[in-house]
Amino acid sequence: MPGRTARLATAAMLVVTTMAACGGGEDDGANASAPKAPATIPELTKDPLTLSFIWFDWPPAHALEDFANAEYTKERSNVTIKVKTVPNANWHDAMFTQFAARKTDFDIPILDSQHIGEAVTNGNILDITDFVKKNIDVKAYNPYLLAAYGQYPQAETGKRDENASLYGLPLLGDTWTMIYRKDLIGDKPPQTWDEMISVAEKCQADNPGVSGLAFHQANGSDAAAVTYNTVNGVYGGNLWDAKSRKIDGVVNDAAGQEAMDVLVNKMKPLTAKGSGNWFIDEVNAAVAQGKACIAFNWIAASGGLLDPKQSTLGTTREQILDKLGFAPLPSQKTNLVPLGGMGMHVSAYSPKANQAEALNFMKWFERADIQKKWAAAGGVPSRTDALESPEFLNAGPFNKVYTDSVSRMRDMWNVPEYARLIDIENTNVNAALNGAKKPKDALDDIAKEQQAVLDSSGRKGGGGL
Amino acid sequence: MSESAPLTIDQPGQAASATPPAPGRSRRLSDRWLAGAFISPALLLLLAMSVFPLLWALYLSFTDYSATRGGPAHFVWFENYTAILTSAQVHLRAFTTLIYVVGAVALQTTLGFTIAYLISRRTHGRGLLTTLFLVPMMLSPVVVGLFWRFMLDAQFGVINSMLGSLGLGQVEWLTQQGTALLSLIVVDTWQWTPFIMLIALAGLTAVPKYLYEAASIDRASEWFRFRTITLPLVWPLLLIAVLFRAIEAFRLFDLVYILTSGGPGVSTETLSFHVYKVAFLGFNTGTASAYGILMVLIVLVLTQLYLRYLNKLKED
């Protein structure tokens, strides 16, 4: 009977294809750790080559593409640089779904520092320890910057373990800057967090229609989480005990509770109504439209604030700068600030010629003269000499804030479970900020859920809920 | 193999009715073979793009496989399913999805049918009105989400601006627990009411005119005619539209992603949005596969029950 035969053939084909696919999956385990990059850059191709980056869509991504095409091609005329961009919220997924397929359409993934653990554990990026030893002057950097953007396992805050492996090099340094209205609160920025809150409170009362504060509160990306982590650090809290992998009892200790109380009960009432989903662009818009006395944002995203076309604060850059001031974050019990920025890495799945070109690009990019040019082009370099150079310090009014903040930086958890940890923190802090949860409950839920994620990392089945 | 050789006949009973091949056609090119050749590309595509992924997901749902971690997939049998069905996180998302589906579909059905009824009573401009009402349905949900996000912005949005001009206060549409889910329902209703309207309009225009004429002769009231003629005849078609919309609403992802990202907190996270997080944040592929399979099963079971009700309605 042909009908029956056809059905049997179809079923057999499905079983065979399923078995074949199952078999393929088992081979994937052979490559479970990061492959090593050569210490010496292999011979570079003379054929036309496109070196592709992947990043999220923001001004530094476009600045990098323009800068690299203008400068790198002077030395490698056959190379074109392409910086592929995705929306910020898709950044992690866009990179790691390609890593999951063991095939990438990019050569240099620009990873957030906390993504390194996941990429290294899965063998997605090259181990460049030997390459760095031979080609990079590591003494030219603040050790923590080098560690934060490349080292795994994660370095202790402020330090670098010279015996640890390196998987990336700094591309763009960043931290939060405090943006304040000089015309409303005076030239001198607040020095302590408590003082900042009271100044914002007074400014809001004195200037109807202008909110005291503007900061990240959204539940996408790492927005609300970075805000809480910053306040947590300033009030002497810790996110976890890295050695014992303990979160419950650490993040929600007395200091953590105080930080959550300050954030929800003292800072949130000074923000604009409906700002509970604000992130980088919304905070910048509020500042540019003169709707905030004091705001917090990433330095690398602050360039647009000085553009008269985007601002109601003045018709020239100078007029805007008469009203806007930029300062390092106020301190309280500690002076910690959030570590931002990203490192560049080499995809383990790129063709060999592209990997060689990527290594060559990294060596070129970390040169002292190029770092200064990158600074002048609007980038935030990481070499100490570039950070202290006039090219960098004169390129933007917020650049000195970065140089002054380098020694104060603290990062989050750089572990393979990072994406889930940050989502738990984001959604709970966002819930507390928008009245969907009590602050204490939100913090306790963060502690409990994050601890469960760390504890279940070896779990068989049912993980991820 | 001479050309005059008889066709291979699969079923003897068909021998008398079998059409002889056209002169010159190869003996191998039987009608059955040709039919198979024509449908095989579509069939192969269906197998490759739908059936195989479904079976593959079914297989993964019984394992602890992670797409990024790689390594062999170990069978955990029903552990993923047990974890999902007993998870408080999943129950919360299921409840949110239920509220959303019931709210959105009920509103869309009421509005869609009302608009269709009003349009069906018009003699002029019916085509133009129908076309205009269909415009939202033609737009991409992402585009719809983005412009509604701007319109619902508490500070700069046109909705609050209009409320302000009426002397009403600002509403935090997307950032408060009470209004965020309502906003999603409103936006989905704006986009998909035309779908219900279209189906209802097709039903309304198919009602035989002589029934209304007979009712008029009997001096039946407008309400009586609606209740005893219009509604019973349109009802089965409307229920099919409701079924389609309920399935679509159950899978809602895009509007949540654009408008609220599931917030505030997780109060607008639907089941689909949660599956996305399980699949792509933690890359717990096995769990996400089981989650997806369970969602398909729920839709299948509910659809079957619904179709049985529809058949019963038809028989009655």
UniProtKB/TrEMBL annotation, chain B:
Pfam families: BPD_transp_1. Residues 94-306 form the ABC transmembrane type-1 domain. GO terms for cellular component: plasma membrane. PROSITE patterns: ABC_TM1. Gene3D superfamilies: MetI-like. Its main location: membrane. GO terms for biological process: transmembrane transport. It is found in: Cell membrane; Membrane. InterPro entries: MetI-like, MetI-like_sf, Sugar_ABC_transporter. It is a multi-pass membrane protein. Keywords: Membrane, Transmembrane, Transmembrane helix, Transport. It comes from the Bacteria. Coiled coil: none annotated. The chain crosses the membrane at residues 33-59, 98-119, 131-151, 192-212, 224-247, 288-307. Residues 1-25 are annotated as: Disordered. Belongs to the binding-protein-dependent transport system permease family. PANTHER family: GLUCOSE IMPORT SYSTEM PERMEASE PROTEIN GLCT, TREHALOSE TRANSPORT SYSTEM PERMEASE PROTEIN SUGA. This is Sugar ABC transporter permease. It comes from Microbispora triticiradicis.
